[in-house]
Amino acid sequence: MSIQSGLPEGFNPQSYDALVVGAGYAGAVCARRLAEACGYKVAVVEKRDHIAGNAYDCEDEAGVLIHKYGPHIYHTTNERVHEFLSRFTEWTDYSHKVLANIHGTLMPVPFNHKSLKLAFGEEKGERLYQKLVASFGQDKKVPIMELREKNDPELSEVADYVYENVFLHYTMKQWDKTPDQIDPAVMGRVPVFVGDDDRYFPQAPHQGMPKVSFTDLFEHMLDHDLISVFTGVDARDLLDMGETSVKVCGKPFGGEVIYTGALDQLFNLDLGGLPYRTVDMVFETLDQDQFQPVGTVNYTVSEDFTRITEFKNMTGQVVPGKTTILKEYSKPYDPTSGATPYYVINEPENIELYKKYRARVEGILNFHVVGRLAEYRYYDMDGVTLSALELSDEIISNNH
């Protein structure tokens, strides 16, 4: 693999069998698989000055390894995804835990046995817990809608507490919506965990952090003789989109093009911008060993920020006397601001707009879209990896 800034003088796309736009999960997975399975010579172009997409991590001035675009926690139930990614990193045994700061008391989220006793007191909390066990069984995630359907005043009280203190205000901060604008179906899915497991992803058999870093994982994934990576390159300067074909650097391109960026940006927002929420990331380095007891604390009823992440609690890194925390402030996304689009606003009119952009590339031979932005959907890391594995399966089978 070679990584270089910008395209070299005389760059000739025709000397490559595939052009991959974006060096995040979707692009890196496809690049690796096409190089390995097809023997393709692959050019990866990345708009940012680094690889790894939003999973990019680096050391800050205090020497603390931070996730520049917000916390990324690896977890998956998918054996294929785990097997593939594990080729490029070893994993720590970190299990993610989240606490909610509810009026100054830190309670596990999802709400569980311990949370009940903290919220309602030892005696009543235990009684409520035993009632939940009797109604639903142990070690089950139960949506609050199901608690309400039991028509039991005490179970409804639990549902109301979780709705008000864990979900409602936090969601209003995250999405800037009033309660009546929030889909009742979404509200009803907020879970209570009937059990003592306080891991955030209790169902995931594989979870942890890369032993070195996420960036290191990507360096290994892209480390192949047939892969060249060019950072600081905006694909819009290279691609000329026709109805049935695409030109690269002004000439017809006969290879595969895999596009992982935003489709509205590819067409210069000519049908309008796809809406997202973005986040102001405020990093603070503190002169102390530890700030909070877990990786993430959600501020569900107070503060303007949604959560605080402390990276050393996730990575296990030892940096005596220093720690770095991240506060996240959710806000609307302006596509002209240079901000990062994070969260798709999954409403019917937005999906319809996306479909119009998507229709414009469907007829282009050997042009493929994959990934969070290109598919206009929210993905965890394992989900986008699986999507890229499945797309590359399709390309590989069509070329053998």
From TrEMBL:
Gene3D superfamilies per the UniProt record, alphabetical: NAD(P)-binding Rossmann-like Domain
GO molecular function: flavin adenine dinucleotide binding; UDP-galactopyranose mutase activity
Keyword Flavoprotein included in the entry's annotation: yes
Cofactor(s) in the UniProt record: FAD
Annotated keywords: FAD, Flavoprotein, Isomerase
UDP-galactopyranose mutase C-terminal domain sequence ranges: 166-378
GO cellular component entries: cytosol
InterPro entries per UniProt: UDP-GALP_mutase, UDP-GalPyranose_mutase_C
NCBIfam families, sorted: UDP-GALP_mutase
Record PANTHER family: UDP-GALACTOPYRANOSE MUTASE
Homology family: Belongs to the UDP-galactopyranose/dTDP-fucopyranose mutase family.
Name the UniProt record assigns to this protein: UDP-galactopyranose mutase
